[in-house]
Amino acid sequence: MTNNADKGLLIVLSGPSGVGKGTVCSMLRKLAPELVYSVSATTRSPRAGEVDGVNYFFKTKEQFRSMIERDELLEWAEYVGNYYGTPRSFVNDTIRAGKDIILEIEVQGAMKVKQKFPEGVFIFLMPPSLGELKNRIVTRGTETDDSIRSRMSVAVDEIKLLEHYDYAVVNDQVESACARIRSIITAEHCRRERIMPYVNSWMEEVR
Amino acid sequence: MTNNADKGLLIVLSGPSGVGKGTVCSMLRKLAPELVYSVSATTRSPRAGEVDGVNYFFKTKEQFRSMIERDELLEWAEYVGNYYGTPRSFVNDTIRAGKDIILEIEVQGAMKVKQKFPEGVFIFLMPPSLGELKNRIVTRGTETDDSIRSRMSVAVDEIKLLEHYDYAVVNDQVESACARIRSIITAEHCRRERIMPYVNSWMEEVR
């Protein structure tokens, strides 16, 4: 037995908009090639170079609606006239194969995933401070004072959702945040509940 | 804020006799010099080269008994006519200074520590299999079949105590076990409960 003998984990990486989820995930793809990244289903058309099953699972609206009806999505949402969602089967197949899968998602989606997949490991990416989050929002684009205020107010509401997560990783530096996420995954594989079944089977042997 | 902004952790490293706690701890001292190692109190005489406060806190029996009475020990035991115990103050001073402290201890002692310090992180070092544990006990010395059987029976009883621990680390290779322990410490610093107070204070600010 090793600490990676069993099923994989679903790691849900979320956090307020502007915190740097995308940047952290891109770095993680380079640093941790052993992790699988969740592939979304969408009804939008493929763009040049996008491959079905790699960038997205491309679906018709009819197909997508029937996935919703059959409860085949861990979460879904409509955005600018198209559907986007997380197929449950891709997640399940990956963890059954003993691999860990990462799902990067905004906070509302993460809360829906938690309802359908509470055994996931929920990681909240945090800004080092509210001031720092404001800096990141300001330097991102050419926002007006009003839109910055409204984005900050949304971010503050999103940060309140931290209470529903297992872990908070401060994104002070991208590399440090990635190292913390990898440590969390390793530690979760060491949780007593995951090793207990092996020990119980040993006890059967010696009885 | 970073993920190491707050108090340190008490990490209790235990496991059945013969599993290699001492070897893992020695390697950890080399790999993780940032960790503090708990210093025991004892009534036995210092040996050549042993320094008070470094190898042990050397106490008279009278001093030790008064530490017991004043509840100044997280656990204690008598062994071959001498007392040994874990001073609570050394642990508390270390974590208050923001440093993590490791206590390597046999399973009975760990269970006593858990009663007095339930907020500790309890890690159980596991053999990869019962067969492997037997090999380690056999190759250790010139034990008779009877004593091997009796040591194995004790080890099996000790392994049952895993259910009281937070984590199980399989000691398949010393370096891997050390890496898992370090990941657990990092992950514990990222637990939501440890970050939540900062976020609550932010929310006070913006209100």
UniProtKB/TrEMBL annotation, chains A, B:
Location(s), subcellular: Cytoplasm
Keyword Signal applies: no
Location of the Guanylate kinase-like domain: 8-186
EC number: 2.7.4.8
Pfam family, any one: Guanylate_kin
Gene3D superfamilies, sorted: Guanylate Kinase phosphate binding domain, P-loop containing nucleotide triphosphate hydrolases
Keywords: ATP-binding, Cytoplasm, Kinase, Nucleotide-binding, Transferase
Recorded superkingdom: Bacteria
Cellular component terms (Gene Ontology): cytosol
Residues binding ATP: 15-22
The keyword Repeat is annotated on this UniProt entry: no
Known catalytic reactions: GMP + ATP = GDP + ADP
Listed GO MF terms: ATP binding; GMP kinase activity
Chief location of this protein within or outside the cell: cytoplasm
InterPro entries assigned: GK/Ca_channel_bsu, Guanylate_kin-like_dom, Guanylate_kinase, Guanylate_kinase_CS, P-loop_NTPase
HAMAP family: Guanylate_kinase
Role played: Essential for recycling GMP and indirectly, cGMP.
Family affiliation: Belongs to the guanylate kinase family.
Name of the protein this chain belongs to: Guanylate kinase
Species of provenance: Paenibacillus flagellatus
